[in-house]
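Forum: Protein Structure Q&A
Topic: Joint prediction for protein chains with partners

I've read a bunch of threads here and the consensus seems to be that you should model interacting components together rather than docking separate models afterwards. I'd like to see that in practice. Below is the full input, 749 residues plus whatever partners are listed. Could one of the regulars post the assembled result?
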Amino acid sequence: MISLILRTATHFLFTIMLQFSLFLLLRGHNEPGGGFVAGLMAAGGFALYTIAYDVAATRQALRVDPRTLIAVGLAIAAGSGLLSLMKGSPFMTGEWGHLRLPYLERLNIGTPLLFDTGVYLTVIGVTLMIILSLAEE
Amino acid sequence: MEMLLSLVIGGLYAAGFYLMLRRSLAKLIIGLSLLSNATNLLIFTAGGLTRAEPPLVPRGADRPTGPFADPLPQAMILTAIVIGFGVLAFALVLAYRAYQTTGSEDLDAMKETDR
Amino acid sequence: MRLLLIAPILIPFFAAVAALTAWRRRPLQRAFGIAGSVGLLLAAAGLFESVRHHGIQSVQIGHWPAPFGITLVADLFSAVMVLTAGVVGAAVAFYSLGSLDPERESFGYHPLVQILLMGVCGAFLTGDIFNLYVWFEVMLMASFVLLALGGERAQMEGALKYVTLNLISSALFLAAVGILYGVAGTLNMADLSRKLPEVPSGLVTTLAMLFLVAFGIKAAVFPLFFWLPASYHVPPVTVTALFSGLLTKVGVYALIRIFTLLFVHDTGYTHPLLLAIAGMTMVTGVLGAVAQIDFRRLLSFHIVSQIGYLLMGLGLFTPLALAGTVFFMVHVIFSKAALFLVSGVVCRIAGTYDLKKLGGLYRTAPGLSLLFLIPALSLAGMPPLSGFVAKLALIEAGLATAQYAVVAVALGVSILTLFSMMKIWTEAFWKNPPEPERPREEKSAAPRLLIAPISALAILIIILGLAAGPLMEIAAQAAEQLLHPEGYVESVLGGIQ
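Posted by a regular:
Agreed with the consensus. Here's the joint model:
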C-alpha cells in the first residue's frame, strides 16, 4: 500500500526520530534516557520508513547490514570496558576525561558514554534484523 | 495494594499456564508471554511497593532528597523485559517456521520426536 | 589475575563478534571459531592454575563494591568447570570443521557456539544470582538458535519443546530471584549466604524448592527431564555433543552452588529430598535408555541417568561425596561428549543412527570401535577408567553415611548402563551388518579431523582414571571449599566488613 500522506509525514518524522534518539542517547548521561531507549527510538524510525516504503528502501537508507551494526556495537561496548583494564582497574570501571570546547563549559566524557553508544548500535541492529527479516517473509 | 497485585499476578500465572496447556501453537506463545509478565510483576511487588521519588540525584545535591524507590527491582525487571522481548521474538519466528514445516498449528501433530 | 577471571567470558565474546563481521565468509568464521575455542581453553587452564595456587579469587566489575555491583568469583569448582568447558569447546570446534554442512556453517554456527561458551563460562564464574539468570539466558538464546538452525521438521518440533520448557524454567527462576530479593534484600550470593540465616526458615525452604524446580528442569532431573530425550537428538551431532557436555551440567552446577552456599539451613529436609530425586533420576534415565534402539536417543537418556549420580553426591553432602561429584562432573562431560562425537562418525560411515540397521563396524573401523569402548566403559564404571574412580568415591561416601538404598540403586544402574553400552557395541560394532536395503554409497573412512578430537577426549578419560590420586586431591579441595563457604564469602566481601 502506498500512502502519500504517510510518505510525506515520514520524511519529517524519520529525521525527527533519529535526532531525538541521539538526544536520548546523550541525555542518558545524567538523566533518564540512554543507549537502549535511544536505540529503540532510532529503530522505530527505520520501522516507520519500512512501512511507508519497503524493506529494500530501508536497507538502502541504512547503508550497512544490521548484522554489522550488532557486531560493531558489541565490540564498542566491550571495548569500552577494556579501556579500564589497561589502567589497572577492574573490567568496566568508568574512566573519565575532560574536554574544553569553545562556547561550552567543561565537558566530561567517559567510557560509560562509549558503552551506551555500543548499546545504541546493538539495539538498532537487533531490532532492525528482527523487523526486516519478518517484513521480508 | 499488595493484595490487588498478588491477585493480578496469580491470575496472570493461571491464565498463562492454562493457555500453554491448550493444543494451539499461538496460544502457547501468548501463554509464555503472560508467564514472563506475571514474573516481572512479581519481582516488582516482592521488591516492595513505595510511594516515592525516582532514585535520581537532583542537580546540586549529592544524594536523593526525600524517600526514593528501590532502583534494583526496576533494573531487574528492565533486564528481564529486554531478555523476554528477545526470547519472545525468537519464539514467534520459531512457531511460524514450525507451522510452515509441519503444516499444522496443533501441538498434538508434533509428536514425531517423542517416539 | 583480574584479567584471567574475565578472559573466559571476553575471549568467546570477541570471537563471536569477529565471526559476526565475517558473515558468509566460511574460512574466516572457522578461523575465528577455532581461535575463540583454543583461546578459551588456554585462559581456562591459566585460571585453573592460578586458583589452584592462590585460592579463591574474585573481581568486582566496574569497581562497584561487592554486595552492590556484579562480582565474578572463581573457586576451585568454578575453575574446574570452566576448564572442562574449554576442553569440550575446543574438541567440538575442531570436530565441527570436518562434520558440519556448509549451509549451517555460513548461517552463524560459529558465532553462536562462541556465545554459548561465553554464557556457560559466565554462569560458572558469576557470584550474583541475578547475573546467573542473565548468563543462563545468554546460553539459552544461543542454544535455541543452534537447535533450530537448519530448519528440518524434527528440529522444529524438538526446538519448540525445548524452548517452551526452558522458558517456563526461566520464569520460575526469575520469580524465585525476585522473592529472594524481597526477603533478603541482596542478590550477591556471598552476601545472601550471610543474610539468609536471619530469614524465617520456612520461607527459605520454599524458595529452595522453587529454585530446585527451576534448575531441575534445566538439569533434567526426575521428573522434569522429559524435554531432553525429545529434543537432544534432532540437531547436528556437534551441537548435541556441546549441549550434552555443557547445558544440563550448568543446571547441575547451579544446584550444587545454591545447595552448598545458600540453602544449608535445613539439610535434614532438603538433602534427603535431593538424594531421592537422584535415585529416581538414575533409574528412570537408564530404563529409558535400555528401551531405545536409536544411537543418539539412547545416549540422550543416559545423560539423564548420569545427572542422578551428580545429585547423589550433593544429597549425601559429605566431603568425599562432593569430591566424587566434582570428579564425576569432569568425567561425565568428557565421556558424553566423546560418545556423541563417536555416534556422529558412525552415522557418517553407515548413514544411520538406527542400531538395527548398523553392524560390522568393528571390521570396517576398528580404531573407531576402540574409541567408542573407552568412554562407554568409563561411563559404566569399569576400572581403570575415570568413571570407576568417580563412582567409587560416591559409593564409599554413601556407605559411610549408611545410605544403602541409594548405593544399591547406583550399583544397579551401573550394571544397566553397562548393559545398554554393550547393546550399542553388539548392535553397531560387533554383529554382522544386515543386508543393505539399497547399495551403500562409497564408504568414506572417518577423516582425521573427526577422529582427533575424540582421541583427545579418550586420552583424557584414561588420564583421569590413571592419575586419579592427584586429581581426586584437587576434587577434594574443591569439595572442601564448597562445604566451608566462609572462604568464598571472605573472598567476595573481604574488604568490606
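Residues 111-136 of chain A form the longest helix (26 residues).
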